[in-house]
Specification:
- The protein is an alpha/beta fold.
- Helix 14 links the parallel strand 10 and strand 11.
- The N and C termini lie far apart (56 Å).
- The C terminus is likely disordered.
Length: 434
Amino acid sequence: MQNRKENKRDSNRKGRESKKFDKPRFSKGSGSENRRSRGKSGQRPPSGRVRNRRRKGEIDYKRFIHQAVPLIEVKYEAEKSYDEFPLHDALKKNLQRINFTHPTEIQEKSFEAINQLRDVLGIANTGTGKTGAFLIPLINALLQGDDAFSVLIMVPTRELAVQVEEEFKILSHGLNLYASSFIGGKSVERDVQKLRRPFHFIIGTPGRLVDLSKRNALDFENYSVLILDEYDRMLDMGFSDEVNYITGKMVNRDQTLLFSATVDDTQEKKINELLTDPVVVKVSSGTATAEHIDQDVVFTDAGSKFDVLLGLLQTDEYHKVLIFAETKRKVSSLTKQLSRSKIKVDEIHGDKSQNYRMHALNNFKKGKIDVLVATDVAARGLDISDVTHVINYETPNDFETYIHRIGRTGRAGKTGTALTFIEKSPSKDKLQKQ
């Protein structure tokens, strides 16, 4: 196989020409010289940032009511099996060991572009193998190439970082390739010590990666491949400053991969700054939908709201329930109330340590607890199977967040149920239409 670096990397470092490309939404990206010139080593890391929080809007409650439409599953037939892909034999054995016989649609359609060192914009629903879509070709390139390179993967949440690291370890078992995740909630001093060892893949949340850079423990110049997983959520959460800082420091960056389940048109400018002449691989609409989920509202008053919730949870069909509240304080207080009522429950939110959050999440996945109460940290990217119900104990700030919340149920072709609690107001109708 032609050496990956010889194939494209050297020419890319000199600056790739920006060319028009067929795309559903995005305009032509800027040239690589401009991309490289932003934020050289003298750029200061962001400080005093303010997260871009949306103002609370009131959503017409009728939008929370929907009768599920059964999914008509169209199974994707891959043109080739992984045995027929130009993969290293050791990687093929690992794929066989975990029964990865055929690629998913996003994996098959993005493989060649990633292998040719093209920038890629990948749009595919959660649970369709997006992580494997970028890990498999990059692991293969490291195994088959003569020259090593390093990969930086940015994700919006701690839990997603751990998931990506776990999938890497499964795919790279016994291949002498190494990765580690660097996230908030863990000891930064320990992370500094850990970075003294070489890693082929660094996975992290933007804030922790910038922190490590400021401590001179992480040099972004050493990384030539950048991946932003769930990039729309990352930018929406207010990480633009960190992304700008990191990409500005990656002066040897010659490939950028953006993967997500949805497309946000307001982020078009930023996407065009990150990508040069990208290949667009779009295997879903890019719009979050919940047509296959039964959705309804529960009208209560403030005094009886908890009793109504408890009554639902005590019925047999509510056996794996994800409950969302808006604030960390409300999540904790609701968890305590449910625990006192003999419900097997735990919580995840930003004030909990990473070890605590992962322990609670694993207990929920394994069925050791029946109910998990969370802020919106759990609404994107997490792989939790067989959630029977999602309950919005408090309504989200916007309808897009609502869709991502309830998308934790009805996965893998199954139907699900979502309920949204609406507090009745005796003095004022707060349910105004958008």
